[in-house]
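Lab notebook, bench 4. The sequencing result for the construct came back, and we need a structural model before the next group meeting so we can plan mutations. Quick request posted to the team channel:

Model the 3D structure of this chain.
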Amino acid sequence: MANKIKLSIEDIGLITSFENLTGASVKDCIVDKEKDKITFIVAEGQAGIAIGKGGMNIKRFSEKLKKKIEVLEFSSDPLKFVANIFRPIKLKNAYIAEKSDGTKVLYVSPVRDKLGMIKAKLKSTRGLIKKYFGIDEVVLQ
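Done. Here's the predicted structure in token form:
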């Protein structure tokens, strides 16, 4: 992990409530007040548990908080984590390179007809990629 995760008291309360409702282990939580949305980063292999049968856990938690809920499954492999972020959109290619100045760059090649969706998703998740893997820049190819 590139940086320590800093959680507010509000974040901890949301994580505890979500874990109690779903039984999934939550690694992090991001509250987007502009979009009225909360994103939970769950442990590897826990996305299905967090979402619940037919999305029931997400629906219940969303109704309880009156906010949109998103679940992303963490992976210690940065390329797999990026694939999880963009799911169900498929990526043709993704790789990490380091520039001569030490800057880490993630190059992502999405399926072309989904480029607009990728750009929107990328805008909201760049911070996660940097937070967990120290990747400074993301380039769409």
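The first strand starts at residue 26 and ends at 32.
Will bring this to the meeting.
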